[in-house]
Design brief:
Blueprint: H1 3-10, E1 16-18, E2 25-27, H2 40-47, H3 55-59, E3 64-68, E4 72-79, E5 84-85, E6 89-92, H4 106-115, E7 118-119, E8 122-123
Antiparallel strand pairs: 1-2, 3-4, 4-5, 4-6, 7-8
Length: 141
């Protein structure tokens, strides 16, 4: 998707259509989530470096900017008066302490990978939430 298509899709003041196989579809969304491992400035620079539009065009259409980390997440709101995101509000990750952090040895990692070997419809792992299902019980051929 090109930058102009993305900006048009994110513009909540204009009805826009998106390309579809046989006929373009009108897009009507309440929420669009864009994910990247890069910060928004670096994402824009890397993906749309040859475009003439400034990054402000993307930022003003993305009202909230979230960053997720292991122990916390941060939220910033776009400020129209400054043309950038405002103060960063940090919140603790509510599930961080619910799962114990276990350091595995290299051999334990290799054993777990070996346990996940799939042969036909039979799963070789133990106590992982998966169950063995006979081929005739599968919902598809």
């Amino acid at each position: 998707m090109g930058l102009s298509d993305l900006l048009k899709m994110l513009d909540n003041h204009t009805a826009s259509s998106v390309k579809s196989r046989y006929q373009n579809k009108v897009l009507e969304c309440m929420l669009i989530v864009i994910t990247s491992v890069l910060p928004i400035d670096e994402f824009f620079k890397n993906v749309f470096s040859e475009q003439k539009e400034p990054i402000l065009q993307l930022k003003r259409r993305c009202g909230f900017y979230y960053e997720f980390y292991e122990q916390f997440y941060a939220i910033q709101v776009f400020d129209e008066s400054t043309g950038d995101y405002g103060k960063k509000y940090k919140y603790s990750n509510p599930i961080y302490n619910k799962f114990p952090k276990v350091k595995l040895t290299e051999q334990e990692v290799l054993n777990r990978i070996g346990d996940m070997t799939v042969t036909g419809s039979e799963y070789m792992g133990k106590d992982d939430g998966f169950m063995t299902v006979d081929d005739e019980d599968l919902p598809f051929n």
